[in-house]
Amino acid sequence: MQTRFLITTVFILTTTTCSYAQPTEEKNSHLKEWWNSLIHGNIDRTHEKKLDMSFIVAPCYTREGSFGVGGAATALYRLDRNDSIMQPSDISLSGSVTVKGFYGITVKGNNHFKNNKTRLSYRLQFLNKNLDFWGISYEGCAMNPISASTRREVNWESDYVYKFTHAFHVGAALNIKYADMSKMSNPAYLDGQKDSYFFAGVGASIQYDTRDFILNPKRGVYLMLREVVYPKVASNYNRTLFSTTAIFDAYQRIWPGGVLAMDLYGQFNNKEIPWTLREELGSGSDRMRGYYGGRYIDCNQITAQLELRQHIYSRLGCVAWVGGGTVFPSFNKLQFNHVLPNYGLGLRVEFKHHVNIRIDYGFGKDTAGFVFQFAEAF
Asked: What is the DSSP string of 170-183?
């Protein structure tokens, strides 16, 4: 679930093992450990602990959901704590509840198996969103008056990849998605489609990956091509669908503490694809930051962004980015005057070892908004 936070207060807690035989001493010990984790939480302790975990609880604000309370936990771990070369695995859990009826929870992570030959990346989401709704095509979203809808979603996305060489990987994908939008003030905006769908899809990918750390790369290149098929027999739709994803990311140090990062992204689907699988500009926390999720929807999406990341002092850093993107029904109807701008500024705090909390404020066409997340946008 995209979670955009206006941070006013942040509480950082750390898991501890406890014994109540000596309550006063244990209390002091816990307080000392909490203080150490607050000051030195960016130190890599995955060689000492099975699970190096920390928590955040904060007031939140989103354009879609208004004010609420959000929380998140992230952890780093190693299946082989004697391996000092392989990057640690990660897992995070985040959720929020807002006054407009938004609530949801997301679990995601990257698990590096022993010997660094295979990796499992995954994301699981449970969402309930009361959203403004304009339609399911770019033209409809640009012309239709605003309406209201309530959407419920369950999403599972996973990639299991095998490393052939230092850089080349092949993978298998499994995607499962259920969504319904039974509460709508204007059902005609669905253009005759059903208000709920279920899909299960399988796919394959090829990847070239030389990034030094997935959650916060400082150097390297990431190229990924993935094809997912949603068979007719594994859905409640009347035909088989295909979906293609293409990503090209590059990272380069340009001066002490400075990294220039580039992201090109494309998602291409059948023109008959239902609304549940269509692309929503700004619906994630990684691309077109600051746009209202679902303000522009269509079958395909292309985005690009260039970001300057600068370390400031100790655990603090900042970023500035510029980019653009659009959604469109098919390539023969792709119009460059529909490309929307995106730019913004962000603050970075190293919460765990090489894992940042990012607070971004993004701007776009007649829009602006906060994004709060773990890890970099790409």
From this structure: EEEEEEEEEEEEEE
With residue 206 as reference, give the H or E element that holds it.
Answer: strand 196-209
What's the pTM? 0.85
CB atoms within 10 A of CB 71: 18
Q: How many CB atoms lie within 10 A of CB 271?
A: 12
Q: What span, in angstroms and rounded, lies between the C-alpha atoms of 70 and 57? A: 6
For 274-281, what is the mean pLDDT? 95
C-alpha angle with apex 185: 181 to 190, nearest 5 degrees?
50
Cα dihedral sign, 43-44-50-53: positive
| 376 neighbors 351 (Cβ within 8 angstroms) | no
Tell me the residue type at 322.
Answer: V
Closest CA to 243 of 175, 190, 181: 175
Distance (Å, whole) CA 41 – CA 278: 39
Which of 214, 344, 243 lies closest to 287 in space, CA to CA?
344
What are the structure tokens assigned to 88, written together? Answer: 């640690």
Backbone angles phi, psi at 90, to 5 degrees: -140, 155
**Whole-number Cα distances in Å, 318 to 58, 282, 332, 361:** 21, 21, 39, 12
Beta bridge partners of 347: 318, 359
Lookup result for tokens 């990034």: 211
pLDDT (mean) for 46-75: 80
Cα torsion angle, 24, 29, 32, 37, sign: negative
Segment 94-150, tens digit of pLDDT? 898 988 888 999 999 999 998 889 999 999 999 998 989 999 999 999 999 999 999
pLDDT in tens, 243-277: 999 999 999 999 999 999 999 999 999 988 999 99
Output the six-digit token pair for 189: 């905006």
Q: What is the pLDDT of residue 10?
A: 39
**Full set of structural domains in the chain with CATH:** 11-374 (2.40.160.50)
Report the distance separating Cα 368 and Cα 342, nearest Å: 9
In this structure, are residues 197 and 175 in contact, taking their beta carbons and an 8 Å threshold? no
Q: Each residue of 179-226: pLDDT tens digit?
A: 999 889 999 999 999 999 999 999 999 999 999 999 999 999 999 999
